[in-house]
Each structure stands twice: as C-alpha cells, then as structure tokens.
Amino acid sequence: MSTGIVLIIDDEEKLRSLLARIIRLEGFSVLEAENIKHGMKLLEKEDIDVVLCDVKLPDGNGVEFVKDVKSRLPSVEIMLLTAYGNIADGVTAMKNGAFDYITKGDDNDKIIPLLARAMEKVQLQKRVAQLEQEVGKRYTFENILGDSSAIESSIALAKKVAPTETTVLLLGETGTGKEVFAQAIHQGGKRIGKPFMALNCSAFGKELLESELFGHKAGAFTGAMKDKKGLIEEATTGTLFLDEIGEMHVDLQAKLLRVLETGEFIKVGDTRPTRVNVRIIAATNRDLQQEVNDGKFREDLFYRLNVFTISLPALRDRKKDIPLIAHHYLRFFSQKGDKRIVNMSKEFLDHLQQHEWKGNIRELKNIIERAVILAEGPQLTVDNLPADLLVPSFHTDGALSTFDLSTVEKLHIQRVLNHTRGNKTEAARLLNIGLTTLYRKIEEYKLHAEA
Fold it and tell me: pTM for the full model?
C-alpha cells in the first residue's frame, strides 16, 4: 500500500470530498482545506508531501500559491486543478515549480498516476536528504577516532579553520585520514550541505587529470563527444579536496593557481573563462618545500596552498589510540559480516600495539576486516592475524621482544605456505621436512594453508 500525505485545497466541498475518498482508496492519507489560508496552516503544521490545489479560490490564485509554497517548502510537490485551463496559466504554474497542471473533467484519469509519480519523487528526495544527513554525521569531528594529544591537537586546528574560507593543506603519511579530515572541515564550515568533491591527483596522467579537474569542450580532443564539467566546476559553492597534490604536473599547477587567485579557469578546448566559487583543501605525503627546492612544485602555488597547514600524526606516533580504533572497526565489520565478535584477546592487542603500521589507519582497518572474516569464535585471537604481523620486533636497545622459538617457527612455516599459495607438497620440500610433519605443524599452530 502507498504511503504519504496529500492535501486537497478546493472550495467545492462535494468535489473535494469525492477526490479525497478516491485518493484514500489508493492508500494515501488525505487532508482537506477550503481555501489557501487554511491550506497554508495545514502545510505549516503537518508533514505534507503532495498538494492538489484548485487554481481559482476565494482568497487567492493557485498559480501564485505554488510560487509561495515552493519558496517556503521546496520539497512539497503541487499539482494544480482548474475547470478552465489555459496555456498561459499552465506555463506560469510550471515555471513557479508546479509538478503538473490538470484540467478538471478532461484529465481525471491522469490524477492518480500523476499523484503516484509526485509522491515517488518526494519520497526519493526525502531518502536523498536522509542519506546526506547520515554522511554529514559520519564525517563530523566527533567521529574522528582517538583521544591522544597528537590527534587532538590536529582536530583543534581543523575546528578553528573550518568556519573560514581559508585554503587548507593537510600533511601526513598515506592512510592517516586526510580525506576524513577534509570532509570534517567541509561539514564544520559555512559550505555544509554544498558539494564536496574529492580527487586523487596521483591516479591520473596529465591529460586525463586536466580533463577531470577542469573539464573540456566537445571536440577538444579525440573522444570528446560532448561538453564535460570538471570537478572544480562541479564543486562550485562547495569544497574540492585534492589529495596527493604533490603529484600534479607543473602545467596543471599553473591553472590551479589561477583558480585560487582569480576564481576562474579555461576549460580544455574553450576560449572563454569559467568562473567558480570553490574552497580548496589539498593534501600530500610529500615534503612540498623540498619539492619546491627541487623545481618539481611551483613556489607561488605552494604559498597559496600553505596558508593554513595541519599535520596528521602517523598511527605509530599515537599508539594509545590503536585499541579504540581497532574496537571501532571490530564492531563495524562484525555487524557487516553478521558475526557476534565482541572483543580481542590481550595477545592480539599486544601485537597491534607492537606493529609499526606503515599503512597507518588504512592498514589497521584492513587487518581487522581480515581478522573478523577468519574468526570462528566470539573473540579475535593471534590466529586471525596475518603472518607479517607476527614478525618478531626489536626494542631500541636491540634486544629481541618476548617471542619464543615456536612463534618464529610458526611464522616461517606460514610464510612458506603463503609463498607456495597453499601447496603443501612444495612447502614441505622448501622447508626440508616430511609432508606428514608439515600437516602436524599446520594443525598444531592452526595455520592457514588453503590450496
């Protein structure tokens, strides 16, 4: 059965009541009003989706009513009903935002199908708005994981710059959460609700990156069959996040500099400039100052980007946050995989704490996802960790950490099995042990030896 609330505004009571009964039979809730004043009160009070409104009413004109309602409640769809349709009114009504313009009597059979389409449009808009709200919540500062002083310092700086229009440069290793910070800055600023576009500059060659970033005109090059907006234009009124900005070709750096200085650029194949209003947040894992010194990055662009810099700490520099982040992803992937895994063993967490995390949070996320897939009980254990995470580590004084011989043996056998892609006969040959011994070791150490 259909859902949604319909408001009928008509001064003819019999016609209004008949239409209300028909619409209720389609499963919609129906409210009635005899004039525009009463209708406006109901619109302000109730969560109405679609309005069926007569054009000529005692206290006003339905065509003008459309304009008034759409300015206040743009998500409400309005269908106008008239006994004497004319083209001029119909054109004005559609310009004012009416969903449709129907002549009573002639178009009665169209009312229910049109109403269903209007309701479908409203429900889709509500769903999109809900998803946008969920995305907004997901990328707020409150959802950046960690309470170490290192990450809290970065968050504090980001919160200060978010409400401004200042260009921001995020520095940090791959996987430290630069895009998450960029999203949070966007959501915490004046451009919330406006477009947020992200582009990884290292993912494209020069020509393709220029087209993706600045767009092109039809015929600008082979295969350019129609005009294309670039991400800078798509992000206008909002924010453009340029990840790995240090990978951008020097020629494109000049075009980006012009955008930052003048708010305009020229598309590939165009002769006239395109104006935009966009905030730029850039990120890199490179030392841009060194890149400038080496002649690989424009000095003038560097100073335009380097207005407000935020350094994001590597995960190894905030190991206090590892259990918090690991538990977050444990809950996420357990729910996603429909598993009931509630915690991690102390030994499992110890290994996480001792790892160097060259891939930072992204690597930790992948490790937890893999562990959840492999886990068979309510707890993650070291048996769910990849072999590389079990490598014995050394303290700064050169002493070996607390790993006994069996751990080293387990690690080595697992590595050989990984090398042979689960071929036990080949693994036994490389290890110079009998196949029976290998099977016993696999069972003893609970190794993963899928063929």
Answer: 0.62
- CATH of 145-311 given 3.40.50.150, 3.40.50.300, 3.20.20.80, 3.40.1010.20: 3.40.50.300
5-135 maps to which CATH number? Answer: 3.40.50.2300
- Inter-residue contact 378 to 348 (CB < 8 Å): no
Distance CA 284, CA 247 (A): 8
For the segment(s) 316-445, the CATH number from 3.30.450.20, 1.10.8.60, 3.40.50.12710, 1.20.120.1080 is 1.10.8.60
For tokens 């099995």, the residue is 417
> End-to-end alpha-carbon separation of the chain, Å?
52
What pLDDT, in 10s, does the model give residues 42-83?
A: 998 999 999 999 999 999 899 899 999 988 888 899 999 888
| Alpha-carbon span 325 to 131, nearest angstrom | 24
Determine how many CB atoms are found less than 10 A away from the CB of residue 185. 29
- At what angle are helices 149-161 and 178-187 packed, to 10 degrees? 40
